[in-house]
């Protein structure tokens, strides 16, 4: 009997890495984005032994892993899970961690660490990833005892995905992941210091309702908080009930259907005239889940100067941070909208306001030139929108192409738009598309990238080749760092310092070297011929689309200027 | 304006780094900080003296601190009835002749001499920061060889007068 019991205990013996794998399975993790290395060998061994439990995506650089995880999280709404080794593996993740922090993307990142006994001795591949990531994570942990590991994993997923989502780093010393542990461990947790307020205060909801029925010039600003909360339907009801004009932030695109009549499109530095004018002139601004970023507000002095500001946000620290707020509502966006929708609906007296807004939309639409032959990027985006029926998942890097995609692709559904907003990370779009495609294999996924940004992470073409992922890489190739070039043209007297990059690889051959179809398009005719087919098939593709270099993103609010000081509003 | 903010925190490794890093990142100026264990095991109390521009910055400070997972509670106790103390040790140059003179200076401050050598005495003083400042000023002419201050630690008094008008930083003001 005794021998049998001990044999049973033997089989129950697990390494720390096994506990990690079990905890991830319990959390419902299906896809991992990671790169092996010395300090995570025990973890990779456990993953190997847990054969079939996870779909593990191996990028060719850790930055590719974490951006892919971000894209995955954005589209699936679940936490993206990343594994990296100690030292350089972990530091290569830093850009992605900072990016996820700025854009509130739920990630759980497991980093290997050197063994506990040598931490602090500058051991091989040691880096103080706790110190490095403390300011750019929602929370981080270094596992000190193997018993704590399952609990910490559960806490990490809980923290990453609830409240205002964000990245959580779990640093696991190698001896913790390799030690054999035989006892049953408790994975229950209690976090007294982390109790997000998700239900709105009814008094504040009343206050907002009162302000709304009094308002003559109301406007709704919808941010990515609406998307994180899954509140798009509730927002639609709310907006429909009161017939409110809606503008979105860059990250809020898709939270309200972009092709609806009440939509004004995106607001901010490159937002529409009607959206920015509505924000400037409104008497009631209802901000739902946006953090009043400087690229949205422009000069704070001229931001909604005559408005009562109502701000619904799950993060109390965002309320009043940039803009003094009269009606603060700390709540999950969905819960707040549900409460608002329970209030009796009164017709608003805002006919004049709505007419003026409609007139602005007619008088000052987005515009661009269309030469005879050459492809202009705005037209390109319209074609992508047309050929994908407005239903694609679109990812981007940062810069001109990002703004054009935001302006011309009218997202009607949430979680279709994957972009680096806060941090503005070049090289984000392509790896993010890999994760986005994995999260939704049924949709067309277009990585709209610049020629500059793509060259930062294009090694991930290997993943497309390996996985036969039908991502369409659309290079908006102006042979320049377009936004830098535009600012140099506008604010630095056309001194194009290091922004024109006409030496670049042959992207078609590059794609072909990965056994991926490559296309080059230089004229509208070529585009009309090739693009519809390429976007429609189920194969990966790299499309080198040559566009006019001198094209600028308009309209624009110059830095330091107010919402009412837009330039390039008309041709 | 100078504010006294206390935070109770889970006593875990890295929590001090997390909190001070946060204040630095958000450009808050810490005048002093003191940390120590509390009556509850695993819970520490931090007392910050910070210099902030206005109420909005102060609100940001408390909110950002509150957001930290390991921070359990944040209070700005500046306008409450509080007891606040700091301790300073001052090594003053003194020969046997002026030792008694120093003794006379420190007596009204209820400070004490805790170390004596041929060339110096070390004075220990506790109290509010301005009292400590005052004693240091008086000792300075004798020549201060070394000075160490703990920073302020504080909590609210057992009884809070009802009339006092507390500033509220809740969102419901």
Automatic annotation (TrEMBL), chain A:
Among SUPFAM superfamilies, the record links this protein to: DHS-like NAD/FAD-binding domain, Thiamin diphosphate-binding fold (THDP-binding)
Cite the Thiamine pyrophosphate enzyme TPP-binding domain residue spans from the record. 397-545
**EC number(s) reported in the record:** 2.2.1.6
Q: Which cofactors are required for activity?
A: Mg(2+); thiamine diphosphate
**Gene Ontology cellular-component annotations:** acetolactate synthase complex
Enumerate the catalysed reactions: 2 pyruvate + H(+) = (2S)-2-acetolactate + CO2
Every Thiamine pyrophosphate enzyme N-terminal TPP-binding domain range: 15-131
The superkingdom of the source organism is: Bacteria
**Which EC class, in a word?**
transferase
Tell me the pathway.
Amino-acid biosynthesis; L-isoleucine biosynthesis; L-isoleucine from 2-oxobutanoate: step 1/4; Amino-acid biosynthesis; L-valine biosynthesis; L-valine from pyruvate: step 1/4
- Which InterPro entries does the record associate with it? Acetolactate_synth_lsu (IPR012846), AHAS_TPP (IPR039368), DHS-like_NAD/FAD-binding_dom (IPR029035), THDP-binding (IPR029061), Thiamin_PyroP_enz_cen_dom (IPR012000), Thiamin_PyroP_enz_TPP-bd_dom (IPR012001), TPP_enz (IPR045229), TPP_enzyme_TPP-bd (IPR011766)
The UniProt GO MF terms for this protein read:
acetolactate synthase activity; flavin adenine dinucleotide binding; magnesium ion binding; thiamine pyrophosphate binding
Keywords in alphabetical order, please. Answer: Amino-acid biosynthesis, Branched-chain amino acid biosynthesis, FAD, Flavoprotein, Magnesium, Metal-binding, Thiamine pyrophosphate, Transferase
Q: Where is the Thiamine pyrophosphate enzyme central domain?
A: 205-339
Biological processes per GO annotation? isoleucine biosynthetic process; L-valine biosynthetic process
Which Pfam families does the UniProt record give?
Answer: TPP_enzyme_C, TPP_enzyme_M, TPP_enzyme_N
What is the UniProt remark on how the cofactor binds and its stoichiometry? Binds 1 Mg(2+) ion per subunit.
Family recorded in the similarity comment: Belongs to the TPP enzyme family.
**PANTHER family named in the record:** ACETOLACTATE SYNTHASE CATALYTIC SUBUNIT, MITOCHONDRIAL, THIAMINE PYROPHOSPHATE ENZYMES
Record NCBIfam families:
acolac_lg (TIGR00118)
* Protein name per Swiss-Prot or TrEMBL: Acetolactate synthase
Automatic annotation (TrEMBL), chain B:
Q: Tell me the ranges covered by the ACT domain, including all copies.
A: 4-79
Give the main EC class: transferase
Query: CDD domains, alphabetically?
Result: ACT_AHAS
Q: Which residues form a coiled coil?
A: none
Q: Which GO terms describe its biological process?
A: isoleucine biosynthetic process; L-valine biosynthetic process
Report what the protein is called: Acetolactate synthase small subunit
Name its pathway.
Amino-acid biosynthesis; L-valine biosynthesis; L-valine from pyruvate: step 1/4; Amino-acid biosynthesis; L-isoleucine biosynthesis; L-isoleucine from 2-oxobutanoate: step 1/4
- What Pfam families does the database record attribute to this sequence? ACT_AHAS_ss (PF22629), ALS_ss_C (PF10369)
Its EC number is 2.2.1.6
InterPro entries attached to this UniProt entry: Acetalactate_synth_ssu, Acetolactate_synth/TF_NikR_C, Acetolactate_synth_ssu_C, ACT-like_dom_sf, ACT_dom, AHAS_ACT, AHAS_small-like_ACT
UniProt subunit comment: Dimer of large and small chains.
Q: Which Gene Ontology CC terms are recorded?
A: cytosol
Q: What role does this protein play?
A: Catalyzes the conversion of 2 pyruvate molecules into acetolactate in the first common step of the biosynthetic pathway of the branched-amino acids such as leucine, isoleucine, and valine.
Q: Which family does it belong to?
A: Belongs to the acetolactate synthase small subunit family.
């Amino acid at each position: 009997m005794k021998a049998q019991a001990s044999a049973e205990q033997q089989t129950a013996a697990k390494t720390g890495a096994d506990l990690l794998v079990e905890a991830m399975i319990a959390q419902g993790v299906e896809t991992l984005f990671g790169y092996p290395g010395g300090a995570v060998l025990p973890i990779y061994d456990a993953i190997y032994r847990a054969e079939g439990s996870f779909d593990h995506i191996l990028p060719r650089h850790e930055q590719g892993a974490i951006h892919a995880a971000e894209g995955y999280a954005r589209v699936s709404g679940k936490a993206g899970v990343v594994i990296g080794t100690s030292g350089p593996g972990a530091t290569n993740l830093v850009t992605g961690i900072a990016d996820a922090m700025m854009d509130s993307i739920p990630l759980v990142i497991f980093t290997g660490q050197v063994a506990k006994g040598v931490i602090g001795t500058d051991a091989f591949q040691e880096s103080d990833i706790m110190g490095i990531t403390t300011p750019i994570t929602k929370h981080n942990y270094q596992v000190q005892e193997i018993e704590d590991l399952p609990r910490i994993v559960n806490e990490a997923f809980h923290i990453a995905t609830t409240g205002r989502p964000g990245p959580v780093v779990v640093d696991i010393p190698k001896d913790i992941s390799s030690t054999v542990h035989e006892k049953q461990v408790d994975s229950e947790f209690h976090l007294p210091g982390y109790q997000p307020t998700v239900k709105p205060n009814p008094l504040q909801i009343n206050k907002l309702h009162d302000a709304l029925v009094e308002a003559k010039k109301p406007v709704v600003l919808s941010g990515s908080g609406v998307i994180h909360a899954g509140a798009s339907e509730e927002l639609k009801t709310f907006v429909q009930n009161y017939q409110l004009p809606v503008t979105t932030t860059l990250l809020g695109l898709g939270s309200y259907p972009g092709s609806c009549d009440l939509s004004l499109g995106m607001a901010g530095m490159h937002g529409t005239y009607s959206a920015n004018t509505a924000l400037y002139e409104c008497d009631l601004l209802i901000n739902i889940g946006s953090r009043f970023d400087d690229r949205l507000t422009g000069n704070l002095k001229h931001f909604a100067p005559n408005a009562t500001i109502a701000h619904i946000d799950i993060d109390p620290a965002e309320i009043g941070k940039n803009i003094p707020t009269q009606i603060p509502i700390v709540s999950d966006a969905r819960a707040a909208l549900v409460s608002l929708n329970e209030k009796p609906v009164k017709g608003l007296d805002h006919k004049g306001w709505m007419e003026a807004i409609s007139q602005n939309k007619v008088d000052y639409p987005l515009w661009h030139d269309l030469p005879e032959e050459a492809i202009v990027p705005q037209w390109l985006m319209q074609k992508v929108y047309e050929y994908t029926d407005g239903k694609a998942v679109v990812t981007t890097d940062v810069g001109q192409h990002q703004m054009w995609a935001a302006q011309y692709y009218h997202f009607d559904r949430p979680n279709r738009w994957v972009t680096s907003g806060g941090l503005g990370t070049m090289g984000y779009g392509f790896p993010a598309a890999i994760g986005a495609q994995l999260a939704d294999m049924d949709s067309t996924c277009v990585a709209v990238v610049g020629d500059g940004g793509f060259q930062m992470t294009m090694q991930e073409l290997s993943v497309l080749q390996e996985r036969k992922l039908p991502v369409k890489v659309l290079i908006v190739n102006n042979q320049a760092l377009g936004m830098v070039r535009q600012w140099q043209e506008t604010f630095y007297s056309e001194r194009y310092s290091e922004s024109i990059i006409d030496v670049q690889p042959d992207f078609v051959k590059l794609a072909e070297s990965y056994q991926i179809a490559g296309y080059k398009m230089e004229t509208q005719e070529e585009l009309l011929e090739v693009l519809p087919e390429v976007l429609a098939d189920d194969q990966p593709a790299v499309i080198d689309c040559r566009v006019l270099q001198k094209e600028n993103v308009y309209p624009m609010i110059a830095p330091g200027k107010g919402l009412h000081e837009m330039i390039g509003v008309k041709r | 304006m100078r504010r006294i903010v206390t935070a109770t925190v889970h006593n875990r490794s890295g929590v001090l780094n997390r909190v001070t890093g946060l204040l630095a990142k958000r450009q808050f100026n810490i005048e002093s900080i003191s940390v120590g264990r509390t009556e509850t095991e695993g819970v520490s109390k931090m007392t910050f003296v910070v210099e902030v521009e206005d109420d909005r910055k102060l609100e940001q400070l408390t909110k950002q601190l509150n957001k930290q997972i390991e921070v359990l509670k944040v209070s700005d106790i500046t306008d409450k009835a509080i007891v606040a103390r700091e301790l300073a040790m001052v090594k003053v140059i003194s020969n046997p002749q002026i030792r008694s003179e120093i003794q006379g200076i420190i007596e009204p401050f209820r400070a004490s001499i805790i170390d004596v050598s041929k060339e110096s005495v070390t004075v220990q003083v506790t109290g509010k920061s301005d009292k400590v400042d005052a004693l240091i000023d008086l000792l300075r002419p004798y020549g201060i060889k070394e000075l160490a201050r703990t920073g302020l630690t504080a909590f609210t008094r057992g009884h809070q007068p009802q009339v006092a008008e507390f500033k509220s930083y809740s969102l419901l003001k």
